Amino acid sequence: MEFWHNRWSTNNIGWHRSEFNDFLVKHWTSLSLEPKTEVLVPLCGKSLDMAWLAQQDHSIVGLELVDQAVKSFFDEGEMDPQIETIGAHVRYSCPPYTLIQGDIFTLRAETVQADAWYDRAAMIALPPAVREAYVEQIRHQTKTGAVGLLITYAYPQHERQGPPFALHDEDVERLFSNGFEVERLENIELEDERDRGLSSITSSAYKITRV
Ligand SMILES: C[S@@+](CC[C@H](N)C(=O)[O-])C[C@H]1O[C@@H](n2cnc3c(N)ncnc32)[C@H](O)[C@@H]1O
Fold it and tell me: How confident is the model over 38-52, as a mean pLDDT?
């Protein structure tokens, strides 16, 4: 927890992008969602991808630990959210966005009932030991039939200290084996990343359906 607060307070947020994610733009339509449906964005930071999802006529529910990240998202979008405490969490609302600040692992089941979820730099930000609990939270905060777009990185873990933590095909299959269907949409080699001391690194996009 302290780790993420430090990253935000020192503006050490190298994961943040000023452009929309390529996989999101390319593959979102393959989830076949209706307009107006609600998309959960776990570990959302201040991601601009939430704005892209809003442009597709979705409402967005982001989950984020660090209040500075949540405030930056609204400040930078020149929005003035309503703020409400819900137990140990704080809900910031400014339609179409709701960001719930606090620890995802202590969010009460069914606080959110999303139709879909988008995971970029969320599951890979978490150490392997808590990934099962993370998948349980996805299950608790989505409806039956919900679909997700998951983006992963896979590389030899011993060659770099996480986060991000490598998430291989077999990990995805295993973690989502109970009550989900997994389809890999695309897998690419990341040549630029390999130059930074990794012997190999790939990135994949998955469509995951909660059955
Ligand atoms: C690597 S960043 C990715 C942010 C965003 N998904 C993006 O693509 O820009 C991971 C984010 O998860 C947040 N985070 C870490 N642990 C969390 C937790 N237990 N509950 C909620 N958010 C958490 C961090 O503060 C950080 O903003």
Answer: 98
